[in-house]
Amino acid sequence: MYFHVTTVPDHSGNGYKMPRASVVHVTSSATRPHHMAQVWATLAVSMGSFAAGLAKGYTSPAIASLQEEEHHHNLHLKTGMNQTRSGFTVTEQQASWVASLSMLGALFGAIMGGWVLRRGRRLALLATSLPLTANWIFTVVAPTVQWIYTTSLIGGLCCSIIMMVTQVYISEISTPGIRGCLSAILKVVGHVGMLLTYIAGAYLDWRQSAMLVAVAPLMLFISALFIPETPSYLVLNGRDEEAARSLQWLRGPHVDISHELQIIKTNVSASRAKQYGLTLRSSMLTPRLYKPIAITCGLMFFQRFSGANAFNFYAVTIFRQTLGGMNPHWAAIAIGFVQLLASLLSGFLIDIVGRLPLLIASTVFMSLALAGFGSYAYYDSMSKTQSLSYADAAPVGQYDWIPLLCVLVFTTALALGISPISWLLIGELFPLEYRGLGSSLSTSFSYACAFLGLKLFVDFQQVFGLHGAFWFYAAMAVCGLCFVVCCVPETKGKQLDEMNPDYAQAR
């Protein structure tokens, strides 16, 4: 905004003196930043989240389909036939590896993520999307279960890189006022993908569903061709002219970006100067790295061991054990639909209510819902074992609404709070010079917990029963509540370091 002052001369004296009046003309060549370009860029990279959501939702109906293949195989053996429709059978243990190996691949992808981020955010999306499409095509033609192990591992690796890069991309292109909302779009689109594969899994077999999933990474590749690299990355790599064009595209053609660009340059220079002297040992000793790592890893730990992965990857199997009359596939679809609605609401609430209140409410309702589901599973198993008279007299499926309600409450609480916010904080808490390393460490830890949680779910169920497993998850959610209250800061409306005018001086 420019102020042009026109002085009015005083003719009563000799010459011009101090003006009696000044006419101030205000011209605004710098309007408020437009958000539309940021939204379009977010929607473009959210195709990566869509692909990851499709992959995540694929597992539960695919495992059910593969286990049905085993059932058909057994029937065929009784009738003298020895081939299933897929050509091979899958046991329960093999199905558990199909689910968990994707998380192991995601762990390797997160380890590689820091290196990939340093090559460019946009380039990473382009380089990962096409291999992911090819990987799903290989799943379609898989001749053995070992082949599926391999594609599950590679698919998890690609998806974790894509999710890490998209979160960092959105954090670096967005203004503070809408960063939470844009970040929530990733979760919304991811839940849309999950819902679609839940629905598709009720009608398609695992090969047909895999063909459907293969389309999404191709969409990501095409959309990423039309978006710019982030200004922060370009400035960090000395490409100032490209950074100016990128920032202009993101903020709008008529917005004066000079002040914001100068802030980024100054603070990135401070970060680069600091980064030259960094070693891994010195980095881990600085609070600017270990505090964000402790916070984000803590949130990831409690999220992964709260039963979220169990419901996502074993939904059909769990509902088969607890529901008497309802189709377990439709119960899984209900979960996907509620997750979608909750993530939509989360996008509006994150920047209005704040991160901390949503995290507290999320962990409270998660613990209550998990305890309720575990209690129902306990009394249901007791009634079946002891053949109680009231259970025998009760119509089949009369109480199906109880476990379904508990799962829906849990799903809503998870999607409103800890699930999107834990990923959002990875982009918000780490300073620029540690963002690649910190994001990689936190995401690696998250996927390591996810892998262990998925593999241990079967063991928990065998040792403690289904009810004991979910009581354990409820206790973990309570511990997560204590962690949130004591350790997690509020980041609502705060700028990233390289966007903060006071950052360089504070250094």
Tell me what the structure shows.
The chain has 507 residues and is mostly helical. It has helices spanning 36-78, 92-118, 121-140, 145-173, 176-201, 206-213, 215-224, 231-236, 240-251, 258-276, 280-285, 287-304, 308-313, 315-322, 328-349, 355-386, 389-393, 401-416, 418-429, 432-487, 503-506, and strands spanning 2-7, 22-27. It has a two-stranded antiparallel ribbon. The two termini are 29 Å apart.
Task: Summarize the entry for a quick read.
The chain has helices at residues 36-78, 92-118, 121-140, 145-173, 176-201, 206-213, 215-224, 231-236, 240-251, 258-276, 280-285, 287-304, 308-313, 315-322, 328-349, 355-386, 389-393, 401-416, 418-429, 432-487, 503-506; strands spanning 2-7, 22-27. It is mostly helical.
What is the helical fraction, as a range of percent? over 70%
Order of helices and strands: EEHHHHHHHHHHHHHHHHHHHHH
Shape descriptor reads globular
The main sheet comes to:
2 strands, antiparallel
Order of strands, widest sheet: 1-2
In round numbers, the mean pLDDT is 79
Number of helices: 21
End-to-end separation in angstroms reads: 29 Å
Query: By helix and strand content, what is the structural category?
Result: mainly alpha
Q: Tally the beta strands.
A: 2
